[in-house]
Amino acid sequence: MKVRPTAGIMLRQLYLIRGSPVRVLPMFAWVGIDIVLWGFITRYLNSVSGSGINFVSTLLGAVLLWDLFTRIMQGVTTAFLEDVWSRNFLNLFATPLRISEYVTGLVLTSLATSAVGLLVMLALAMTFFGLSFFAIGALLIPLLLVLVCFGIALGILASALVLRLGPASEWLVWPLPALLSPFACVFYPLAVLPLWMRVVAYLLPPSYVFEGMRSVISGRGLSVGPLLWAAVLAVAYIAAASYGFSRVYRYVVRSGLLARYSAETVS
């Protein structure tokens, strides 16, 4: 895999943003709204609850991490869809571009744009609602890395779905984080789930991340074993999603679907 083609994919996204400043708005607008909304909710809960629980740390911190995961996933998919919407997909692969270079470019683009959203979320949460997220210290880094890796895996998988089923199937992409959120235990402990949902949750890295975050905030520390298992799952999902994307790409090339790629292509 060469650096220059990968950098070219990122440069294309930079040109798109520079040519249309409106594209900058989604990087921070929706995450900013989420932080403000949940910030006031947690402030209200702190004022009426006598439980002694700091809802700013538990709920607002969970929202911040979940929004980061969502931005990573949608960042990969949106960068891919930009080529679909502009009918640029064929032009890209008429060049000696490898599929690994293309996917890596999408991932790096997503990481760069998501970093902007993360900075906005942190600034709002810390400035206006007193979220002391850095009090977690270095333990925050592995939690973020696991979420980022799983977001990348889900973004690659979503892109593969659109590549296989056609642009009209992009509506399948956007609800994916919402469909996973009940199993990810973003706002509640794993123990409250029924058994069948708990089995699914054990297979999702975010459930370990949010359990670990709540454990650290409550002062119980972070269990290394579950976090390592979450990291293994996340890396395995990236490998599986990348393999699936390459298989789908080879299929659409052999079957001719790539040549007639349009909004009507659904088979």
Explain this structure to me?
Helix content is 73%, strand content 0%. It has one domain. It has ten helices and no strands. It has 267 residues and is mainly alpha-helical.
TL;DR?
The protein is mainly α and 267 residues long. The chain has one domain. The chain has helices spanning 3-19, 25-48, 55-85, 89-93, 99-129, 140-165, 176-184, 195-202, 205-217, 224-255.
Layout of helices and strands:
Elements: H1 3-19, H2 25-48, H3 55-85, H4 89-93, H5 99-129, H6 140-165, H7 176-184, H8 195-202, H9 205-217, H10 224-255
Helix pairs in contact: 1-5, 2-3, 2-5, 3-5, 3-6, 3-9, 5-6, 6-9, 6-10, 9-10
Helix content: over 70%
* Shape annotation: globular
Please indicate the percent range of residues in DSSP E strands (runs of 2 or more): under 5%
Secondary-structure content class? mainly alpha
Q: How big is the Rg? A: 20 Å
Secondary-structure element sequence?
Answer: HHHHHHHHHH
Gap from first CA to last CA: 31 Å
Largest sheet: none
Mean pLDDT: 86
Number of domains: 1
Stretches where pLDDT is under 50 for at least 5 consecutive residues are 262-267
Say how many strands there are.
0
- Give the count of helical stretches: 10
